[in-house]
Design a protein that fits this description.
alpha+beta, 11 strands
């Protein structure tokens, strides 16, 4: 819950400007937060208590211009109000300060490391994240956490954010056909969550593997059927041979009986032949 002095009568989000009419400095300021949001839309598809906004104004006072980060995340808010969605983020309506704010440093430096840091600190944003791929001697990614009212720089890449249940970091990858360093979400073990395109590719690969396994099972079943048919044929042949042997034995027995009768007819006892 917000606790600071505001006028008694406050405008709603629909009554406030939804854009400062200032264009972004480069495409990365849209693509980088856009990738983070795209991953969340799949990762948290069943959750309806979060908002990740891109280039949306955060109103903290009706008589002051909004703060417009490149991206921010709020937890514990309605994902959607209605089909018109949010025109802006009004703190006295939402009653929830964003837990995560992202600024992508462009070629035109916009005081991300000074003025904006102080603004988000005063606002009470728990995590302020700054990304700049142009830095050479310092890390491209800085994660600042609010501790006792002051930001403290967190070490590592990725950095685990326990209050969010995600890690944030950067590494080389491909997004929208561009191979470069991108920002991603990570699990607690530091494993990167896949982008939507990577998930589609992975699903296609798994489906192909399942098809191959099914084909292999079909081939094995056909081979087993063939072996069973061959075994059946062998059994039939063995049965025929056995029948033939039985017939021969019967014929031999008949000949012995005939010979015995002939000997007895001649007065010879076949049992005493020696």
């Amino acid at each position: 819950m917000l606790e600071y002095n505001l006028p008694r009568y406050l405008p709603s989000a629909e009554e406030l400007p939804d854009s400062d009419e200032t264009p972004v400095d480069n495409e990365l300021q849209e693509l980088i937060p856009g990738l983070l949001k795209a991953i969340l839309l799949i990762l948290w598809a069943e959750r309806m208590d979060w908002l990740f906004a891109i280039d949306m104004g955060i109103y903290y006072h009706p008589d002051k211009p909004p703060i417009v980060p490149d991206g921010f995340l709020s937890l514990g808010v309605e994902r959607f109000y209605d089909e018109e969605l949010r025109p802006s983020y009004v703190l006295w309506d939402e009653n929830v300060v964003p837990i995560f704010v992202l600024e992508v440093v462009s070629q035109n430096y916009r005081k991300e490391y000074t003025t904006k840091l102080a603004e988000y600190e005063a606002l009470g944003v728990l995590y302020y994240v700054i990304y700049s791929s142009r830095r050479r001697r310092k890390p491209h990614l800085e994660v600042h956490k609010l501790v006792n009212g002051k930001y403290e720089l967190q070490e590592g890449n990725p950095v685990w954010l326990p209050e969010i249940g995600l890690g944030i970091g950067c590494e080389r990858g491909n997004y929208c056909g561009v191979t470069r360093e991108w920002m991603y979400w990570y699990d607690e073990q530091g494993q990167r969550y896949l982008t939507p395109a990577e998930q589609v590719k992975q699903a296609a690969q798994l489906a192909q593997q399942e098809i191959q396994r099914a084909q292999q099972e079909t081939q094995r079943a056909q081979q087993e059927t063939q072996r069973a048919q061959q075994a059946e044929q062998l059994a039939q042949q063995a049965e025929q041979l056995a029948q033939q042997e039985t017939q021969r034995a019967q014929q031999a027995e008949q000949r012995v009986q005939q010979l015995t009768e002939q000997l007895r007819a001649l007065g010879i006892d076949p049992d005493n032949l020696g």
